[in-house]
Amino acid sequence: MRTAPGTALARTTIATLVTVLALLAAAPQALAHNTLTGSDPKEDAAVDVAPEKVTLTFDQPVQPGEVNQVVVNGPDGGQWARGPVEVDGTEVSRSLGELGPAGEYTIGFRILSADGHPVTREVPFTLTTAGTGSPVETNPAQQAEPGDVTDAQEPSSVIPVWVWIAGAVLLLGAGIVLAMRLGRER
Ligand SMILES: [Cu+2]
Q: How many angstroms is it from 31 CA to the middle of ligand 1?
């Protein structure tokens, strides 16, 4: 059986394409989401007095912007965090007035990872001694949920970049294979 000189080239081309596509597909996973490495108050901690502000620390810088949210929901259904969310490198913080009833409070956050993806989590802590403060919001129906933010504010370039490259590589590969087939038929 005669082997056309173009067949080996076609095999090499296809093998190269498969390798390139596999590398491109693996690339997004290499950029991991931000992971919470610490907080004040600490997760599941029991405190008799809450700090003046809630601080969340991550393993990678947080992208600044309106998309970042931090709320503190109390045992009475109130929301206790106030003022703007501050982003300083790997730290995100928000002011906390004096807390009220003793019981379980939950820090809820939604932050924008270094890789462009939002990360949402809850960090509970317990206040052992009641304070004299009042919540910012008291209506449970308006209780802030960090997951309510839409994804529309995410940078749209995050996912498409490698998809465009993969598409271009595929088109180029298809063009090469087609050109070799046409060349052989003559
Ligand atoms: Cu991610």
A: 6
